[in-house]
Design goal:
The protein has 176 residues and is of the alpha+beta class. The chain is built from six helices and six strands, in the order H-E-E-H-H-H-E-H-E-E-E-H. The protein has one domain (22-175): Glutaredoxin (3-Layer(aba) Sandwich), CATH 3.40.30. It has helices at 2-18, 33-36, 42-51, 56-62, 81-96, 155-163, and strands at residues 21-22, 27-31, 70-76, 104-108, 134-139, 142-148. Helix 3 packs across helix 5. The longest helix has 17 residues, at 2-18. The protein is globular, with a radius of gyration of 17 Å.
């Protein structure tokens, strides 16, 4: 019985230390889209998600992509104005084009001086995450390209170029 108790306590401690963390106004670490739909994040997530209208022509061009070997990572900050503006639009776009959401890892990074643009479990290491949001697409584990902070044209036009493997340079090309 004592072993089960201590094992349970250790498991809870691990989840608190390394899982999705929420402080009063920010999320940290690997999070779910559902976490953004809860207070206080829903106050900016829900209206932006609902108001965004993805261009139908763009959706049609991407609906037939084979997603089998593609994955993505989305780095953002709940404290970041650019993330609050772009992340709901990105997630709506991914839903509308049929991207398998289980192949997307959503990572909330910190804004404190000691842990700036870092997550508690350091998924950002080696990825040169300089600005957020940063959405990185991979094919067979190799980076295809990334969207950084805000679009060059429109979110849809930029993501269309990335997913169709066309020439595209992120707004902050030093981030790649």
């Amino acid at each position: 019985m004592k072993k089960i108790f201590f094992l349970s306590v250790a498991l809870i401690a691990f989840q608190l230390a390394y899982g999705q963390k929420s402080t009063k106004n920010k999320l940290l670490g690997v999070v779910t889209e559902e976490a953004l739909q809860e207070a206080p994040f829903d106050s900016w997530y829900e209206p932006t998600f609902a108001a965004h209208n993805t261009a139908l022509a763009t959706i049609e061009q991407l609906k037939n992509i084979n997603w089998d070997s593609k994955t993505a990572q989305l780095f953002f900050g709940t404290w970041c104005g650019d993330s609050r503006r772009e992340v709901p639009k990105m997630l709506k776009f991914l839903h509308e084009i049929g991207f398998p959401m289980e192949q997307l890892q959503i990572i909330a990074v910190n804004n404190t001086r000691k842990q700036y643009k870092q997550s508690p479990t350091h998924e950002e290491v080696g990825l040169n995450i300089i600005r957020v949001p940063t959405l990185i697409f991979y094919q067979s584990g190799q980076e295809m390209n990334r969207f950084v902070e805000y679009p060059r044209e429109t979110l849809e036009a930029d993501l269309l170029k990335i997913l169709q493997k066309k020439d595209y340079t992120p707004q902050y090309s030093e981030a790649k």
